[in-house]
Amino acid sequence: MTVTVRFAPSPTGNIHIGNARTALINWIYARQNNGTFILRYDDTDRVRSKQEYAEGIARDLAWLGITPDRVERQSERMQAHEAATRKLKDAGLLYACYESADELDRQRKRLAMRGLPPVYNRAGLRYSKEELAGFSAEGRTPHWRFLLPNHKGDPFKPERTEVHWDDLVRGPQTVDLASLSDPVLVREDGSWLYTLPSVVDDIDMGVTHIIRGDDHVTNTGVQIAIFEAMGADAPGFGHHNLLTTASGEGLSKRLGSLSLQALADDHYEPMAVASLATLIGTSGPVEAIASMDELVSHFDIASVTKSAAKFDVGELDKLNARLVHEMPFDAVAGRLAAAGVGGGETFWNAVRGNIDKVEEAAFWWQRVESATPQIDAEDAEFIQTAAELLPDEPWNETTWSVWTASVKEKTGRKGKSLFMPLRKALTGEGHGPELAALLPFIGRERTLARLS
Question: In CATH, what is the architecture of 81-167?
């Protein structure tokens, strides 16, 4: 059996870090098993689905390092969905219901007042010819529910009916179909909810494992029943824990700050995002993984815990910094050039340990080329003496130590009182990269101008 998984986002907005977690776990599982990863757009919502969002999803996945083996669009498979709908109707497993949303809400409230679970009463199976004629006269159109196999011939006498599966993440799972309402598969306007097209496409595309968030655990019992009603074996399932914000709020597309596009625009490294999105909420440590190949080797789906995991941007900042501090010049040369940063590999090695994002190197290059000196009144005479002791060019990495040694000998200053005034005068900052590395880039002319 060739492992085949799918990531099935709706192109109705930008995907966020929680969606990325699902995509990454699926992609990694496929790579670990020499399998196939399908990007399948759930674009049957004709009003909200936009091509620009589909293109954005592909762009964001590519930024993470995920390249699909196949791309599918559910909107191109509507004939297959219609055929499945007819098959279920002909088998008596899809039945028409005419209740309005208000009527269904009142039913649920009456059940709640009696202390009963809000399970649909299957009234749609009891309509008389007169009632059906009345609905037609009123211009009502039905929604269609799937008849769950939780009875022995009489649907009005449901019995405990257990559906079992061995979850890749959660282990043995059980759902009782008698505790659930018959799910609506087709809306009043004839459009499908995601459930039926998803099952049909999973069958036709040979999906062997469905890996998704644990908010779908209960849905799995229903979907296994639909797979069986369609005459197919259900795939394996895995339900990973969900990500929340640092404050515990659930993620959604309206949280634009945690969309992959926003994180990319904020200059986070894709591997920092991939590392945190994948490894958070597992029993192992959250580490900055340098490549997708390494992440594939590092991740074990069995290590995912059952508790929700909080996505903390502060943690992302730390991982990002660790990656940047280890990045070789070849990996960033193009980005530095685009940001107007000169100095080549020597400059990059000088500043990378003092920045959290690659693009922040531009700040220190600007300080090389131009800085507003900060010279405190009590340091003015000291700075003047330092200027008089400035070595002649050419300068190299030893110039700083030679210069400061002579300044120390002349003024008697040492430690912070020696180095800090010089740093503030040369860069306008109280902290930063080693001045021994920066000084040759600043050069004697600019150094002298800043000390004067």
Answer: Alpha-Beta Complex (3.90)
